[in-house]
Amino acid sequence: MALRRIRNFSIVAHIDHGKSTLADRLLALTGTMDPKKAVDQVLDSMDLERERGITIKAHTVRLLYRARDGQEYTLNLIDTPGHVDFSYEVSRALAACEGAILIVDAAQGIEAQTLANFYLASDANLTIVPVINKIDLPAADVEGTRTQITETLELDGSEALAISAKHGTGVPEVLEAIVARIPPPEGDPEAPLKALVFDSFYDSYQGVVVHVRLTDGRVRPGMRILLMSNGRSYEVQQVGVFSPDMRPVEELSAGQVGYLTASIKRVADAKVGETITETLRPTAAAFPGYRDAKPMVFAGLYSIDDTEYEALRDALEKLRLNDPAFTYEPETSLALGYGFRCGFLGMLHMEIVQERLEREFNLSLIVTAPSVQYKVLTTAGEVIDIDNPSKLPSPDRIEQMDEPYVTSSVFVPTEFMTAIYKLAQEKRGEHRSLEYHGKRVHIKFDFPLAEIVVDFYDRLKSISKGYASFDYELSEFRPSDLVKLDILLNGDPVDALSSIVHRDKAYEKGKALVEKLRKVIPRQLFEVAIQAAIGSRVIARETVKAMGKNVTAKCYGGDITRKRKLLERQKEGKKRMKQVGKVEVPQEAFLSVLKS
Amino acid sequence: MRPGSAYPKMHFLVADNPSSSSSSILAVSAPEAKELGLYVHVPFCTKRCGYCSFNTAPLTDGAMARYLEALHREIDLLGALAWAPGVRLATVFLGGGTPSLLAVDEMAAALDGIRAQFEVAPDAEITVECNPESVTREKLEGYRVAGVNRLSLGIQSLDDTILPRLGRLHDARGARSAFEAAREAGCVNLSVDLMYGLPGLDLAGWAGAVDAVLDWQPDHVSAYGLTLDAGSLWGAAGVEGIPAEQEQIDQYWRLAHAAAARGLEHYEISNYARPGCRSRHNQIYWRAAEYLAAGPGACGFVGGIRYANVRATPRYCETLAAGVLPIESSERLSSRQKLGERLILGLRTADGVPTSWLETRLDGDQRLRQRLDTWRAQALLAGTGDRIHLTEAGFLLSDALFVELL
């Protein structure tokens, strides 16, 4: 296949600006997908993705398109994850492309992720095709959006295509623009193989299916390949393309996008960003930019039922086959017993892993309050990483504590500025810069990561009536005045409820937390005292009164079954409780640490 | 030969109704014990009480006659079961609804019908629930002659402002007269039902009712704390004036102490009796022993199977008119369920359960064992040698334990 008939592109957009809808249109228009079989938004194939309306995994599909010049082109659409938790994955997927369609919602205009994605695409030297979507909306402002594209992105707004992906208006022009504006790939098919891994997933029959973009050389079954970051060598079993289902082909060559299988056992062995070459004739240099995905948020995962520990470990192992971005290692909690400390890219990633464990492996889990990773300089002069509050050395052994900071962008209509600044202040944000873009402002803040991982995004959305958008990246560690906030139940500290908080916020947080716990901990045979403490100093207290009366007066007329079923239903509810000392603590109590 | 007990008829019943296996569940499920109880549900009430979620039906013209005809057919069908000649009824309990709406001849015919189909033990306990306004000395004498030897009077309260709010049709004086009528009619085993935790009932009012009723010297007292069942009028619509939790607890203890002072044994969560006067029929339930059911919505337990009759009275009558036992649902208990039931029923009583039953349940469940230690440490659960039982304080919290034991 001639390289000049290939286009490798991606679609990037702020969430809800219509990325998946446009992708579906392109598939339908090129006949890639049988409309009868069409499930809306085929690219979002995981159940969770469809429910949440976001793409978690990258997807790839090959479209065959006969352009108006009469030639047939192969268009490789490389879909990217749509959440800030996965920006490294996005950058690798973009590295596999020559161009990107940047969608801007005609009613919403440019948002934080539009900008973040635009920068990622520019950094990858992609040709950007701006597309203004949702022109059918009554609130659509096509001309205003063109101006915004010109002024904010410094692209030619007049060249932006105005479309309605929902109705199909203007979509054929998008296909033409892909062919006309995005350059074909370059590369030497005769040179040694050099292929970029931009996604991979585990298939129980074939092992890991690796998504690759070839820049040089060829790959075909039987060839021995080398994974450059880990030095492992494999024999290729199958190569193919996604159309959209996996279809084997004889070979993939320079410029092409497809998949290969090589009996690779774990996704972790063929990570996103990896360079694949020939074992016998390796390429000179790997692709730059490879890194291990680095977890930012850590939490303990415990099975409610102690007997499910093994099952949880097996499930984590299976899940990690497919998701090397999350990490886990065994940990022990005095309160919760044996479990795992898990690292996640962000809160969404954490929720996804938890949901998949519960749904796909039928486990009942307790997730402890998420923590970021702190750097602690001890009085002995050591620097240790702490991602679990219960592992924090005692205050007299701490010389200094540093916490991770992010630089962030908030895009918001000017009317919400005051509310945003108030929120930023509450979250220990530091203002960096402010730029006006018509009726909107782009504010940059530095935040402690710990303040934004939990409910920041939800709060931001609610105070701005959904108009604010947000993006961030990790910047640096800074010294901070942090303390460990402990929770005691009837005098005994519950390690799984501890958190690391800024000293100035400890009182407020402690008070909110014990109040919340009083509401979720049910009455027991005895009174339960809930205390929040810093060191030995109790800063807040609430009490759950002892149960007074819990009795069924009469099993009427020998109807025992009704009574038993009633109790059995109650028992189902109790299964979601964990016994901590003598106190029964429901699952949601552990999460209340982060929501208070 | 008993009327209607011809085997071919039974055979016909099964063949005629091949899809309804529950109709014949009793045919294939013989009782394990020789002695059984029989519960007969009489669904009719003149008026429905606010707190009541039991299966009741309005007493329209001819409804009683249709019901009694169906009941006779049901008893005949039960008597026709192959195993029926081998069992003996140790207790018969007519509950409701309002069984005392039955005229003397109707009551006599019902009991005759039962005796015609089943061997009834010579010392069988035969109880009828009565509402005070529906009984007279003459009627109760008639019941006694018909074989009734225990009466349970639904007094509930002696407060003439509370009684009408409950939907009861008697007043305090009527309650007293009914009790006296029962004694005059020769009833030597007489029980009184009371309720506490009622809307508008304070501790002083309750203490007055408790002391007054105990002065009458009943042989047995049942005292039920009000629970708002989903199926009751109050459960659906809500009700004002329910005493605070601590007030209800105080009311419970007021009766417990007064009853003890009068020599009544607190032998089950809600039941008190003079020595030797415990309800034999109810003890069948609490011992997870076997009993048959008759009447709409009645529940039975035979051969490891719990079953329930059709609830709606018209459909109950129609089903029997077609010659089919009106069993609507049945469930065979697993051994785990059986053990769970035995524990939660047995622990309702002061006699408790054999320690070995609890040990079987605790086998391998270290956590539950630890929790039971808390129950013991707080004197809610007590063991005397080879039996274990809830204390009076434990009764008040019993559901919290039962949910663990299932």
Question: What are its keywords?
Answer:
heterodimer; A: 596 residues; alpha+beta; Rossmann fold; Elongation Factor Tu (Ef-tu), domain 3; Alpha-Beta Plaits; 5 domains; 8-stranded antiparallel β-sheet; 6-stranded mixed β-sheet; 14 helices; B: 406 residues; alpha/beta; pyruvate-formate lyase- activating enzyme; 2 domains; 9-stranded mixed β-sheet; 3-stranded antiparallel β-sheet; 16 helices; 17 strands; 41% helix; disordered N terminus
Provide an overview of this structure.
The complex is a heterodimer of chains A (596) and B (406). Chain A starts with 5 loop residues before the first strand and ends with a helix. Chain A contains 14 helices and 33 strands. In chain A, strands 11-10-16-7-8-15-12-13 form an eight-stranded antiparallel beta sheet. In chain A, strands 2-3-1-4-5-6 form a six-stranded mixed beta sheet, sandwiched between helices. Chain A is globular, with a radius of gyration of 27 Å. Chain B is 41% helix and 22% strand. Chain B has 16 helices and 17 strands. Chain B has a nine-stranded mixed beta sheet, sandwiched between helices. Chain B has a three-stranded antiparallel beta sheet with strand order 12-13-14, with no helix packed on it.
CATH architecture of the largest domain in chain A: 3-Layer(aba) Sandwich
**What is the radius of gyration of chain B?**
22 Å
* Poorly predicted ranges of chain A: 35-45
The total tally of domains of chain A equals 5
The count of strands of chain A amounts to: 33
What is the compact description of this entry?
The complex is a heterodimer of chains A (596) and B (406). Chain A is of the alpha+beta class and 596 residues long.
Question: How are the elements arranged and paired?
Answer:
The complex is a heterodimer of chains A (596) and B (406).
Chain A: E1 6-13, H1 19-29, H2 47-52, E2 59-66, E3 72-79, H3 87-95, E4 99-105, H4 112-123, E5 127-133, H5 142-153, E6 161-162, H6 171-181, E7 194-203, E8 207-216, E9 218-219, E10 224-227, E11 232-235, E12 238-242, E13 246-249, E14 252-253, E15 257-261, E16 275-278, E17 297-303, H7 309-322, E18 327-333, E19 337-344, H8 347-360, E20 365-367, E21 374-378, E22 383-386, E23 398-413, H9 417-426, E24 430-437, E25 440-448, H10 449-452, H11 456-463, E26 469-479, E27 482-489, E28 492-493, E29 499-502, H12 506-520, E30 528-534, E31 537-544, H13 560-574, E32 577-580, E33 583-586, H14 587-595
Parallel strand pairs in A: 1-3, 1-4, 4-5, 5-6
Antiparallel strand pairs in A: 2-3, 7-8, 7-16, 8-15, 9-14, 10-11, 10-16, 12-13, 12-15, 17-19, 17-20, 18-19, 21-22, 21-23, 23-25, 23-26, 24-25, 27-28, 27-29, 27-30, 30-31, 32-33
Helix pairs in contact in A: 12-14
Chain B: H1 7-16, E1 35-42, E2 44-45, E3 57-58, H2 63-79, E4 88-96, H3 104-117, E5 119-130, H4 137-146, E6 150-156, H5 162-166, H6 172-184, E7 190-196, H7 203-215, E8 220-225, H8 233-237, H9 245-261, E9 265-268, E10 271-273, H10 280-286, E11 291-294, E12 299-302, E13 305-309, H11 313-321, E14 327-332, H12 335-346, E15 353-354, H13 355-362, H14 366-377, E16 381-384, E17 387-390, H15 392-396, H16 398-405
Parallel strand pairs in B: 1-4, 1-11, 2-3, 4-5, 5-6, 6-7, 7-8
Antiparallel strand pairs in B: 8-10, 9-10, 12-13, 13-14, 15-17, 16-17
Helix pairs in contact in B: 2-3, 2-11, 3-4, 4-6, 7-9
